[in-house]
Amino acid sequence: MTKNTEHQFSMLVRELRKEYVGNGPKEITTRFIDSWAISEMKGNLTNIEKFMMNSEEGKRMVNEARTEFVKKIYQSSDVLAKFEELVQAKIVRVFSDINIEEDIAMTIFVFDKPLKLRSK
């Protein structure tokens, strides 16, 4: 795998977020570290979500909806298969969280073997 694979991984995350959530993050960076793929995303929230955050109840609703919805995306075997095919490793678990005040989300994909960066 090359740095290009990290970029392809980021684009896959963006594509899936756009498909399931309605928009993808404005910025995304993925790094492979041992058996982890760590994706940091900035600019995730929609205009409606930003508007909802004008109240404490709205903040709670946006945080809960984003957290639970993203977890459900990564429960799909079809979604997981796309990542596994790209890096040739099986996903063991996925961790995801969002800080809605800073509009930064992190997803950590844990694979069954190290994701070694190789030159072409």
UniProtKB/TrEMBL annotation:
InterPro entries: MpsC. This is Uncharacterized protein. It comes from Aneurinibacillus soli. The lineage of its organism: Bacteria, Bacillati, Bacillota, Bacilli, Bacillales.
